[in-house]
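Page 47, continued from p. 46.
Same chain as before, 208 aa.
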Amino acid sequence: MPADRLLVLLRHGQSEWNLKNLFTGWRDVDLTPAGIEEAKEAGRRLKAHGLAFDLAFTSALIRAQHTLDLTLAEMGLTGLPEQRDQALNERNYGDLVGLNKDDARKKWGEKQVHLWRRSYDVQPPGGESLKDTVARALPYYCQNILPAVLGGKRVLVAAHGNSLRALVMVLDRLTPDAVAALEIATGVPLVYRLNADSTVASKEILTA
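Result:
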């Protein structure tokens, strides 16, 4: 139904490098057993709430793609049309990729690492800030995802903590200061229903 205008955002389940507390960025690592269960549980919650989808979007990285596949399988929606694009990839952490976050704090200090991780426009060495991530994720959302939702397609987006923070920043109209405190949990669906003018009519977080 066009009036539904359903958009669900889902951060991938726990990855192998999440578990090891490593900066992951664009490194292509898969889910842990716990992450696999998180993705399945997301599918069960969505199904229990009577939700279904017509179209899915995901990143170019396996942890998001695997999460999408597991979630849809749990809902009985295997084979749903999907689009993959690196515009939805996690932010690129540059020289930090592969480093343990605790080791990075010891090397550069708690304050500097916090700035790299949580600020809006401070780039880690050789990497992207959240502002840079917004600059690639938002145009993709406006050109591909939003028209599908406004056209009546029920859309699921399986992506990453920072690419989804970029979208939530726009949907929830958060300031750069406010988005610094925004955390998006792994495997927890964010259910949006949009108005015809693309603003948010309602938002629900499907926690356990």
